[in-house]
Amino acid sequence: MITQDIFSDENAYVKRSNQVSATTGAWLNEKISEILTHRGLEHPFLNQYAKLGLPESKSRLLYLETLHYFKHLPFYVCAISTLTRDENILRAICFNARDELGENRSHADLYLDFLFKKGISPDVVSAYQCLPSTKALNDGICALYSTPPLQKALGALFADETMSAAMVAKYNAGLIKEGLNEADRRFWTLHMEVEVGHSNAIFNIIQPHLQTPEELNDFSEGIDQYMHLMEMFWNGVDTFINKIRN
Ligand SMILES: [Fe+2]
């Protein structure tokens, strides 16, 4: 389980910098608590999935929807760099996006391998039309990451990485229930570690941009909007999948 403490662990994939002041650190920790308890992550559908998994036909739909949620995210993350001339931000964004892209094969490619192993054919993957709520999530993230103010975009990215660390742990738990072995869950276990580091990469560079009440407010607004989009995504998946009989 991903808890608040994991982010300040000495062995985190990206360690927290001790250059961040106690005040900013405490404020960001509070934001992490809000993210980890938001219904966009603590969603009944996702929690139920972590506890019980799903029958195979429903599980396939969940993972097809998930592909449409995240497949273009590295492009959107890079768009944040156009909102600033702060090289530290550019460095953190490039680092996170580069991880998602991999040396030769992106995480989206690895995810396709995971779908094929789950028995979903390439034809089904390419013909699949996602739910409007999933498209709204994807489009909403694109808009959040490419529109000023910078603080709002970075708040959304901070929510994205922080939330994702805990969300992938729930997917992984559901897949264990569905009987997948460790090798077939590698995509998910890898992300459980990496996303904590990605959240810390943002934690480490954000302080100079969180100096005024307006800046703090914009950052919080980005978090809230991102988590709202996630909540709508899960509501959509919940209604859709529970409508179908086993
Ligand atoms: Fe990430």
Characterize the structure shown.
The chain has one domain (17-242): Heme oxygenase-like (Heme Oxygenase, Chain A, Up-down Bundle). 70% of the residues lie in helices and 0% in strands. The protein has eleven helices and no strands. The protein has helices at 22-37, 44-52, 56-70, 73-79, 87-101, 107-117, 122-127, 132-146, 150-177, 186-203, 213-243. Helix 3 packs antiparallel against helix 6, helix 4 (73-79) runs parallel beside helix 8 (132-146) and helix 5 packs antiparallel against helix 10 (186-203). Bound molecules: fe (ii) ion. The site of fe (ii) ion has 6 residues, from helix 5, helix 9 and helix 10. Fe (ii) ion binds at residues 96, 100, 161, 164, 195, 198.
What features would you highlight for this structure?
246 residues, Heme Oxygenase, Chain A, 70% helix, mainly alpha, single chain
